[in-house]
């Protein structure tokens, strides 16, 4: 969801920088790369330790929630995301949402402007809230849990993951799935080579490459 469907990766950066700036610290892109796909408690522990903040992970999470309540209602859709979601729904292709966000965070991002679109996902897995997701990305847990919710009981090799992060790609591959990656342009191209397919935007995706019905326009 974050950075692939919604522009929330940028908003996360703003939120975290707002907090760490109070202590003269900088939330770098390199640190962000390490954290993308992490569960909330993992992320808070790494940031507070790495930047030597005078906050416990729990205190950091309290501060982030204040930031999120202000920033997340401003979310916007990433290019090509709505077209792809509606296409797959119209063609009755089973789809699910697998996000490392908590359920509370999801509602902050979606409820104001995007409820109808996200209602097209019949199955949702919230990595920071679901007790079945024991480990965050790059471990495969979230995608295996997400796939288990499909009544079709698909084999893992029949599942296609869309990701923007290196950790997410590794998680999908570890689950035995194919992965389409839409990375931040600042990501080193060497780190994208594991993905099944790398795109500059979801607008470039051609469903027929994976045996899916092509776009009609």
Poorly predicted regions are: none
> What would the principal axes of the Cα set say about the shape?
globular
Question: Strand content of the residues, in percent?
Answer: 5-15%
Strand order of the largest sheet: 3-4-5
Main beta sheet: strand number and arrangement? 3 strands, parallel
Q: What number is the mean pLDDT?
A: 94
Report the C-alpha radius of gyration, rounded: 17 Å
The count of helical stretches stands at 9
Estimate nothing, just give the exact number of structural domains: 2
Supply the CATH superfamily name of the largest domain: HAD superfamily/HAD-like
Which range best describes the helical content: under 10%, 10-25%, 25-40%, 40-55%, 55-70% or over 70%?
25-40%
How far from one another are the termini? Answer: 25 Å
Which structural class do you get from the secondary structure elements? mainly alpha
CATH class of the largest domain: Alpha Beta
CATH overall fold name of the largest domain = Rossmann fold
Instruction: Tell me what the CATH architecture of the largest domain is.
Output: 3-Layer(aba) Sandwich
Give the SSE order as H and E letters: HHHHHEHHEHEHEE
Number of strands: 5
What does the model show?
The chain is mainly α. The protein is built from nine helices and five strands. The two termini are 25 Å apart. It is 39% helix and 8% strand.
Strand and helix map with partners:
Elements: H1 8-20, H2 29-35, H3 40-50, H4 57-71, H5 81-90, E1 96-99, H6 103-110, H7 115-118, E2 123-126, H8 141-148, E3 160-163, H9 166-174, E4 178-181, E5 197-198
Parallel strand pairs: 1-2, 3-4, 4-5
């Amino acid at each position: 969801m974050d950075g692939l469907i919604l522009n929330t990766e940028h908003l996360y950066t703003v939120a975290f920088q707002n907090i760490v700036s109070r202590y003269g610290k900088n939330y770098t892109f390199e640190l962000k790369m390490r954290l993308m796909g992490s569960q909330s408690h993992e992320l808070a522990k790494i940031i507070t330790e790495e930047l030597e903040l005078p906050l416990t992970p729990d205190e950091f999470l309290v501060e982030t929630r204040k930031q999120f309540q202000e920033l997340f209602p401003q979310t916007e859709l990433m290019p090509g995301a709505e077209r792809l979601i509606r296409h797959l729904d119209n063609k009755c292709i089973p789809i699910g949402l697998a996000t490392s966000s908590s359920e509370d965070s999801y509602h902050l991002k979606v409820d104001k402007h995007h409820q109808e679109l996200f209602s097209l996902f019949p199955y949702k897995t919230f990595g920071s809230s679901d007790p079945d997701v024991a480990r965050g990305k790059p471990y495969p847990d979230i995608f295996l849990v997400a796939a288990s919710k499909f009544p079709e009981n698909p084999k893992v090799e029949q599942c296609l993951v869309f990701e923007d992060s290196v950790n997410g790609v590794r998680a999908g591959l570890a689950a035995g799935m194919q992965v389409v990656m839409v990375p931040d342009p600042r990501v080193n191209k060497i780190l994208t080579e594991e993905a099944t397919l790398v795109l500059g935007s979801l607008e470039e995706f051609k469903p027929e490459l994976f045996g899916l019905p092509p776009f009609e326009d």
